[in-house]
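Let's practice the habit of predicting before peeking. Look at the sequence and jot down your guess about where helices and strands might fall. Then scroll down.
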Amino acid sequence: MRIVFAGTPEPAVVALEKLIDSPHEVAAVITRPDARRGRGRTVHPSPVKALAEKHGIEVLTPTTLKPGTEDGDALRARLADIAPEAIPVVAYGNLITEDLLSLPTHGWVNLHFSLLPAWRGAAPVQAAIAAGDSRTGATTFRIDQGLDTGDILATIDEDIQDTDTADDLLTRLAYAGGELLVRTMDGLEDGSIAPQPQVGEASYAHKISTDDARIDWTAPAEAVDRHIRAHTPGPGAWTLLGQSRLKLGPVEPVPPTELEDLTEHSALSALQPGEVHVSKKEVMVGTGSSPVRLGKIQPPGKKMMNAADWGRGLAHQSSQSVEGGEDEVKFS
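Done guessing? Here is the structure:
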């Protein structure tokens, strides 16, 4: 089947690679224009563009798809020439107007990383982890004018592990979803797939801001753990120590088997939400329930480091006696 692929970030690369390796013909790629990234703010192509150019595939980079604009009209003319039978989409990042949706025979087919109608929207993987879901998956569906509301073509399931970060889960879903997208193209071509309407209650995963990633230490330990994993690696869960913003890696809620021992230690059993306890080997922080053990921490202007190393430096530099928690050092 003759297709045009639309996608931009790294998770879309896996799907494009699998489509290139499939019997389907990837005639062109639509992706976002080159953008400035990194400290030097140098211009870089999107990961999808870089892969397409490596394979000699034509790349289209319109700034907008709206009709009546130079970019939008040029894209319509080029797509009319290519005449794709389907346009698979993975995290493209641009609004597809209604007139374009009917251009390919089989429409625009989106790969979404949830089991729709659960977690429609921009950040389904993060939302599923933060909510404590035990199961998620990927869905291919035909794009319509709603927000991830189109008819479902195919799905796969994926368990969410207790230690999964958003990056861990998204990586697995990207590979499994890429294979699902190829199978969906196969089924559309041979007529074995029958689109089905979405069934069930919808939930929504809004785009995540940096403010959303701030840690609420009054939440239970399990919720703090999920929040941090859901925002790892980006935008990165963070907290304040005084006026300094610290980014945290995944934490470990103290296992129930340790809780009885901890209650015998007055400093640990009395930890208030956000209060930090530094010992020689570890750093504990109070939550709305039981403490959590920090794993890695990134102070301003520095790289991620082991929390125990950071804690020893804090104890050494501070005029407060953080060792043993006798004076309050508190995240907020």
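How did you do? The CA atoms of residues 87 and 108 lie 5 Å apart.
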